[in-house]
Specification:
seven-stranded mixed sheet, binds pyridoxal-5'-phosphate, globular, 2 domains, five-stranded mixed sheet, Aspartate Aminotransferase, domain 2, Aspartate Aminotransferase, domain 1, 14 helices, alpha/beta
């Protein structure tokens, strides 16, 4: 008998989760745009509703019929089945119509008024706003800790009553500061650990393997990879977490539509290729810009000087990734001039695409934060964030150098 070997991630992503027989033999998935599905029998309809609403569990090989595309649809199922092998430790995935929808749903599904959240700063500006303004207005206490300060995080976790969620973004947007995921998981105890893995995952960092409960993505970024689709994903090790998020997704109506799921699905087999190239490019550029006379600092994992940050990077990341930030000596005027002079890098928010995008976080992605929140998080007037694409790194470095000459 042939020896059965477990396939590796690169093979699984192309072979698992899609059955051509269900797409009239098409070698790649078709797009199923229907809003509703015809049941084979009324009993099949009843069973589908019982399972979708959580009143019953599907048997291991039972085929549950589709109902309605706010609840589920084939392109969401295909995408979810195909992304699971890429996220080490995941048993299930839930796709959303944006990264914010994934984050919001994961928070609302696990919090009630009176509960508390400990979160690291900085976070992506939208997520930080959720923590600072939205959740407190709904009766959830939110406790910030500065990213990278492990002892402060452990103290805050221990001191916070009714703690239900610990939320980390590592590396943090836009300062690249890393938080120790394993230490957070150990300290969190019964509280859930949610990790936004947008900057390094699913290729270079594996939070579920380090003890996180739910991993979150803006799929708009590296998963989408071409700056042409908005989406989000949550993945978990425990099937109960996946089921809970699916239930809330039905209520909130924030599933990703079929066309976007199809686009994202087609990008999965190349995410590792793209991210590897982006990481190699970014490392060469970061190290090339380090020490430039117009800069006070280059923020990039291989340039960390703090021994604790070096330790966390070595312990939990395989490669440094495609994001870096630079701090210009001339503050905001110098940062704006740098953006104006770029010839290859484009001045746009978002990140993770094959084309290089550059932005000034304090006046854009993080403009909703107070001066004090920016100061605490290290988001200065001269900070510029670079999302490195797959262009030739020598052309990009030359472009950045000429733009710094002003
Ligand atoms: C780290 C991170 N998390 C979440 C988000 C939100 O994702 P989306 O724009 O897909 O809602 C972003 C967006 O920039 C981000 O950078």
């Amino acid at each position: 008998m042939a020896k059965k070997t477990k396939m590796r991630q690169d093979t699984q992503v192309l072979t698992q989760g899609f059955d051509p027989r269900l797409s009239v033999g098409s070698a790649r998935p078709a797009v199923f745009r229907s809003s509703t599905y015809v049941f084979s029998t009324p009993e099949a309809a009843e069973r589908a509703f019982d399972v979708a609403s959580g009143r019953a569990e599907a048997e291991p090989d039972e085929r549950i019929e589709l109902i309605y595309s706010r609840i589920n649809h084939p392109n969401a199922e295909i995408f979810e089945d195909q992304i699971v092998p890429l996220e080490t430790g995941a048993t299930g995935a839930v796709v959303f119509n944006s990264g914010m929808a994934a984050i919001m749903t994961a928070l609302m599904a696990n919090l009630q008024p009176g509960d508390a959240v400990v979160y690291t700063v900085p976070l992506y500006g939208g997520t930080q706003k959720l923590m600072e303004d939205f959740l407190p207005a709904w009766g959830v206490r939110t406790v910030p800790v500065v990213a990278g300060d492990r002892l402060a995080m452990e103290r805050a976790i221990a001191a916070t009553e009714k703690l239900k969620v610990v939320f980390l973004e590592s590396p943090a947007n836009p300062t690249l500061v890393m938080s120790d995921i394993r230490a957070a998981a150990a300290a969190a105890g019964d509280a859930l650990l949610l990790v936004d893995n947008t900057f390094l995952g699913p290729v270079f960092q594996h939070p579920l393997a380090l003890g996180a409960d739910i991993v979150l993505y803006s799929a708009t970024k590296y998963l989408g990879g071409f700056s042409d689709v908005i989406g989000g994903v949550a993945l978990a090790a425990d099937p109960a977490h996946v089921k809970l998020l699916r239930g809330y997704r039905i209520l909130f109506g924030n599933i990703l539509p079929p066309d976007e799921c199809w686009i994202l699905d087609s990008r999965l087999p190349t995410v590792k290729l793209r991210m590897n190239r982006q990481s190699k490019n970014a490392q060469r550029i970061a190290e090339g810009l380090d020490g430039h006379p117009a800069l006070t600092h280059v923020y990039y994992p291989t340039l960390f000087t703090d021994p604790e940050q070096q330790r966390v990077y070595a312990a939990q990341c395989d490669f440094p990734g495609g994001m870096l930030s630079i701090e210009l000596k001339g503050g905001k005027p110098a940062a704006f001039e740098f953006l104006r002079r770029l010839k290859i890098g484009r001045n746009a928010v978002s990140l993770g695409g094959v084309e290089t995008l550059v932005c000034h976080p304090k006046s854009t992605t993080h403009s909703g934060l107070s001066q004090e929140a920016c100061r605490v998080a290290g988001i200065s007037d001269g900070l510029v964030r670079l999302s490195i694409g797959i262009e030739d790194w020598r052309d990009l470095l030359a472009d950045f150098e000429q733009a710094l000459e002003s």
